[in-house]
Amino acid sequence: MTRFVIVFLILTISKGKDYEPNWSSLDSRPTPEWFKDAKFGIFIHWGLYSVPAWGPKGSYAEWYLNGLNNGDTARLRYHEKNYGKDFPYRDFIDYFDAAKFDPGDWADLFKRAGAKYVVLTSKHHDGFCLWPSPQSRGYNSVNGIAKRDLLGDLDHAVKKLGLRSGFYYSLYEWDHPDYPKNVIRYVDEHMLPQLKDAVQRYEPDIIFSDGEWDRDSREWKSEKFLAWLYNESNAPKDVVVNDRWGGETRFKHGGYFSTEYDPSSGHINDDFIERGWEECRGMGRSFGYNKNEGLNDYSSSDDLIRLLVDIVSRGGNLLLNIGPRSDGTIPKIMANRLIEIGEWLDVNGESIYGTTINPIARSGDIRFTLSKDRRYLFAFIEKVPKKRMRIKNINANGNEQITLLGSKSKLTWRNVRNDLLIDIPKKLRPAFSSFPIHVLKIPVLPYLDPPTIKIEIKDERANINITSNHTSVKLEYGFGDETEALKANNEYIGPFQINVAGTLVAQSSAQGYRTSKLATMPVEILSTKNGLTKSTYLGQWNDCREMMKETPFLRTRVNNFIIDDYRENDFGHAFTGYLNVETEGNYSFQTTSDDGSRLYIGDFPLVDNDGLHGRKTVSSDIPLKKGWYKIEVQYFERGGQESLEVKWKGPGFDWMSIPSYRLFIDKN
Questions:
Q1: Which CATH architecture has domain 532-664?
Q2: CA distance readout (Å), 371 to 266, 377, 541, 614
Q3: What pTM was estimated for this model as a whole?
Q4: Alpha carbon of 111 to those of 125, 387, 445: distances in Å?
Q5: Which residues lie closer than 8 Å to 384 by C-beta, 6 or more apart?
Q6: Contact present, 195 and 227 (Cβ < 8 Å)
Q7: How far is Cα 9 from Cα 6, in angstroms, rounded to an integer?
Q8: Is the pLDDT of residue 5 over 60?
Q9: Cβ atoms 483, 652 nearer than 8 A
Q10: pLDDT tens across 313-333, in order?
Q11: CATH topology classification for 29-348
């Protein structure tokens, strides 16, 4: 009996938490730590498109078939000249021979590059598979001239060298007989069985889903698939997925957040840091190999190192793409770039792998990361002064000296008020000439995480609970703006209730640690006077100006700037109401949207983020006196992803969503 209990306990522990097939449950799964620690991965676009390997400069060569299907003149002309007008794309299967593909050599190159994980295109939008997928009906690399399981061969070689291995998979296909004519049959009988087959065969560490924009996640049955992946599949329990699981899911649902040729810091916020995020891009513009791209079209290794540092300093990963030729050779320029990145990481990897974001991500041109124990700050330096360096808003700690990674020399330093002064001896200057970026390792006082605030509102009263993931800390709280809220010195001793709206501010402190950043959360106890009028429009427009000429088909009352997530394309909203400003000062407003948005204060067009574009952030400043201001936000969605965020910052508080208790239907 005792033996049975022990076995049952072991099985229960090993199985872990079960996730339900809904976003609320699935999104509660934390992104596995190995992914956040890895920082650098290799993306590989390789398939039938690698045979023509052609696209107009600046375009994606892997979209060759899409160009043929949609009448792209340049691609049609090239195809007719080189293969014949009636040559079907699928016949490239007889040319994609992978004759020089050596998975061991590829894996060795990726390891030399310093990458920690590898993602190969198992199937792109053209539907051709790099493994013997039963659902592909022979349209795969085993049944083609290559006669090889290319995904399986590389997966084995990569894992053999201790790297994490996974695959890219396109949910939709351009040329499948059931898509988009019979989406239900395509998903049930082709897509889901095919994706599950790849998972069961190769037990991936990471799945990069794509092509999600064409359908809602409900049509893809993404929630059901992810619950199966986490609970039942052969995949490791720490399998990682991205956020591309439906037209409405990017930056909202799934796993880590994924950006593409768009590592703008305006997109990075606390949600990105908590979930983890990854920028994917090619060395040139195209992901698949493009013959039209020359030396000048590729980023230099110095620029790629700068890109890696920038992304990691903001808490992200870089998934850097290569596009092999159809014979399996990696172009020399790509291989050389990877080797040069690896040489830099051999010296400076301590400042990249396993680090976390520093509360101050940069100071002037200097970017930072922080060791996981938070006791060492890594400063990335491009321009080194001859005698002395000043790093603003940074202090070192203790009796340790500062070191230059890759050098045994130690540097003397001193804190001058809020700045750090570092002496640069003459003998060390040659060491600053070999790389585009050099890294200083600086001992610092470790910081505490901000406390966690939980607010439950019931019967017009707010139950407030403040906790910390550190032990033996002092928790303080207050209400109001950040500069004033903690002056009352309210020490938190347990849960409490309040019955008025406001902004709660809390902070952690402990001996031997830097005080935490402030945690802020609005207490949204709303009255019948709070709210906004939301006008909904249906149609196709190029900007908000065109939309606002139309007549809305629906008006509703809402409490915030939330778009209808059940609508996919060709809709828009206009939110109107009044903003109550309690403190005079300079304020900043911002919208992040895909597609366009505009924000008005009074009748003044303060933020212009209009037009057709991907996720983009625009902000602007305005001085405001205490009082009431008309506020209007316009937003439209034409195609692809849909998203809208509206934030502000002002005297005593940093960027945050505008609290609902500040928004009113009419002036009070």
A1: Sandwich (2.60)
A2: 24, 6, 48, 34
A3: 0.86
A4: 28, 37, 34
A5: 424, 429, 432, 438
A6: no
A7: 5
A8: no
A9: yes
A10: 999 999 999 999 999 999 999
A11: TIM Barrel (3.20.20)
